[in-house]
Specification:
With 339 residues, the chain is of the alpha/beta class. The chain is built from 14 helices and twelve strands.
Length: 339
């Protein structure tokens, strides 16, 4: 089965990582550290920031929940469609959720974000957005954050981690300059280790300290901790793999028959978003691929706000992408297209 639905790095974990984890699997008989402080010190050395600005989480979902609980505000704004997790958690914590549509259901509206920020407690921005891949520049984001100090901005950079320019584009090193900024990052996606449940939360010292006080002790796992102490540097040491992934998406754009598409959206992320021609139904197409041992995402079904006919194809090897394109072209070959 070829899985092009999970938004993970297809080239990791490699043999080096797997062999290391196998040799240390006996450590599951031991508790993790109570606060992960030593692990955080190791991680933040690679990021070049002080440990006081970083908290280890069991994935970005826990990071979101910890921010919402600790800030304990009343209102949250979402620009939809976007990642479902934040709405799920905000509902659970009884936040007053305000939803605003993206322009054409695809693009961030900077003026609208500024307008909303003046009357809301929290804004969540997935940047680049999942599922639309629209991205707000670092310069523009910092301008919005600076001009709206009453509003706390939660920036989810899970998709951004797949960019070879991640270090230059990320806001993690700005959290010491802005008290109203939190940044989330998932190691699980970019290093393809979802079973270890590893995420990072960056924010100002006061908020991070309060989050650590509210966080359950022993909430991480032993294998996750030893992985991070050994391999956390990998995030900044795999630009060749990130470039390879983006090159494979370029090949997808080259190989796929565009007569059956309206557009392909790609932006140095973990997936591409494809809008299909009306004659190619996303539901039927996804079922066809599943029957042929290839998994892709029906983005229109997962994100109804897209109001279109979209599929999402996640990162894959060159071989996987070629198989996808061949099957896609074969499926569509006999469909009558209105040109």
């Amino acid at each position: 089965m070829i899985d092009l639905s999970k938004n993970e790095n297809p080239y990791l974990p490699n043999k080096q990582i797997l062999n290391f984890m196998k040799k240390n699997v006996h450590l599951i008989a031991k508790y993790p550290t109570s606060d992960s402080d030593d692990v955080i010190k190791t991680i933040t050395q690679h990021f070049g920031i002080h440990p006081d600005f970083c908290c280890l989480t069991t994935g970005t979902l826990e990071g979101m929940e910890l921010i919402l609980k600790t800030l304990n505000k009343k209102s949250l704004a979402l620009f939809i469609p976007t990642f479902w997790g934040m709405k799920f958690l905000a509902n659970k914590l009884n936040y007053n959720i305000k939803e605003y549509p993206l322009d054409n259901n695809l693009y961030y509206n900077i003026e609208l974000i500024n307008e909303v920020a003046k009357k809301i407690d929290l804004i969540y921005l997935c940047n680049p957005n999942n599922p639309t891949l629209d991205q707000i520049s670092k310069k523009e984001l910092l301008k919005i954050i600076k001009n709206n100090k009453n509003c706390h901005f939660i920036i989810d950079e899970t998709v951004l981690a797949f960019s070879p320019k991640y270090k230059n584009l990320s806001l993690y090193n700005e959290v010491n300059n802005y008290d109203n900024l939190s940044v989330l990052l998932s190691y699980s996606k970019i290093l393809s280790i979802p079973g270890l449940r590893i995420g990072l939360l960056f924010s100002n010292k006061k908020l991070v300290s309060n989050i650590k006080n509210n966080k359950l002790i022993y909430s991480t796992n032993t294998l996750g901790e030893i992985f991070l102490k050994k391999f956390s540097y990998k995030l900044f040491n795999i630009d060749n793999l990130k470039t390879k992934i983006q090159g494979n998406f370029n090949l997808l754009e080259k190989w796929i028959n565009k007569n059956y598409l309206k557009k392909i959206i790609k932006n140095n992320g973990s997936f591409v978003l494809i809008e299909l021609n009306e004659q190619v139904k996303a539901t039927n197409l996804c079922k066809f691929f599943e029957n042929n041992n290839i998994l892709i995402s029906n983005a229109s079904e997962a994100y109804p706000e897209l109001t279109g006919n979209f599929i999402r194809v996640s990162a894959g090897t060159k071989k996987d992408i070629k198989k996808f394109c061949n099957k896609f072209n074969s499926y569509c070959k006999n469909i009558q297209i209105n040109k």
